[in-house]
Design goal:
By secondary structure, the chain is an alpha/beta fold. The protein has two domains: 8-213, Spore Coat Polysaccharide Biosynthesis Protein SpsA, Chain A; 218-296, no CATH class. It is 46% helix and 17% strand. It contains eleven helices and nine strands. It has helices at 18-29, 47-54, 72-82, 101-111, 148-152, 167-173, 184-195, 219-236, 240-265, 267-281, 285-296; strands spanning 8-14, 36-42, 61-65, 87-90, 96-97, 117-125, 131-132, 163-166, 198-209.
Length: 300
């Protein structure tokens, strides 16, 4: 007879960064709820990381050894395919959870079964694990209910380790979009928010680490991926106002990318970025006007 499904499957992708991985895993083991499984998807790490992963003897831990792809969505989807829990939680190899993280999400799910996913506030720590005291921005304050429009306009922003969702809900939306190298978790949250209201937990139950080894440090690739995200959601939008938000956000990111390319490669690269984005952004004259003029004019 197979073992009963755990309450939560914890998805953790890893590619080296052993100095951060160890405390991330320890924060899972420190949870006040013990009914979990930890599915670690190793994206082809080096020998020291593989050796440490092999030393994890707890029967609740499973390690998937993958060929290196440098595609976080593909790595997470591999772990999701192996998940057995009724709910799924996410933590990256450089994140930390508060000890009551899973407990409070499970309580929220029990109290509001109609809300099939939840997310909490999230703090930030430095490379050494020290808490960074920052003023909380309005978009970081969790909210209950149907939050799709707020997410789409980035008036609500959710951190990866802050979310716990019903596994069937994640399966129904198809997991992560492997064509998005950046912004993939925001895209996942958008699709969750289309299917179910959320519970917002205002307590900081997780912590993302600020350091200089982030995969998302490539700003140009990140902007391009966010443009693809908004183009995708514009093409799928069922409501005119959702499509308009996508077009406006696409235009704003295109301007950011054009500025970056102007600084790196000159005016021609910036103008090509604007030209290729125009199909989504032409009606946003107030946003584009002065910025386009500044990007297009020759430098003195």
């Amino acid at each position: 007879m197979s073992a009963a499904a755990p309450a939560v499957s914890v998805i953790l992708p890893v590619y080296d960064r052993l100095q951060f991985l160890v405390p991330a895993v320890e924060s899972v083991f420190a949870q006040t709820v013990g009914d979990w499984e930890l599915v670690i998807a190793d994206d082809g790490s080096s020998e020291p990381t593989r050796t440490w992963l092999a030393s994890l003897r707890d029967p609740r831990v499973r390690v998937l050894s993958l060929a290196h792809s440098a595609n976080p969505s593909r790595v997470r989807n591999a772990a999701l395919a192996q998940a057995r829990g009724r709910s799924v939680a996410f933590i990256d190899s450089d994140d930390l959870w508060a000890t009551t993280h899973l407990e409070k999400h499970l309580v929220a799910a029990h109290e509001h079964p109609e809300r099939r996913w939840s997310y909490s506030a999230c703090g930030r720590i430095d490379a050494a694990g020290r808490l960074l005291h920052e003023q909380q921005r309005p978009e970081r304050v969790p909210r209950d209910g149907w939050i799709f429009e707020r997410l789409l306009a980035r008036r609500t922003v959710i951190a990866m380790p802050a979310v716990v969702a019903a596994r069937e809900l994640l399966a129904g939306i198809g997991g992560f979009d492997e064509e998005l190298p950046f912004g993939e978790f925001h895209d996942l949250c958008l699709r969750l928010a289309l299917q179910s209201p959320a519970t917002g937990i205002r307590e900081a139950l997780c912590f993302v680490r600020a350091h200089d080894e982030h995969y998302s440090a490539n700003r140009g690739a990140a902007f391009a991926s966010w443009m693809r995200l908004y183009a995708k959601h514009a093409s799928q939008a069922q409501k005119a106002n959702h499509r308009a938000i996508c077009e406006r956000m696409h235009a704003a990111v295109a301007l950011d990318l054009a500025r970056l390319r102007r600084a790196a490669s000159g005016r021609a690269a910036a103008l090509e970025t604007l030209r290729s984005a125009n199909v989504f952004s032409w009606r946003h004259v107030s946003l584009w006007g002065r910025a386009v003029f500044d990007l297009a004019r020759p430098r003195r």
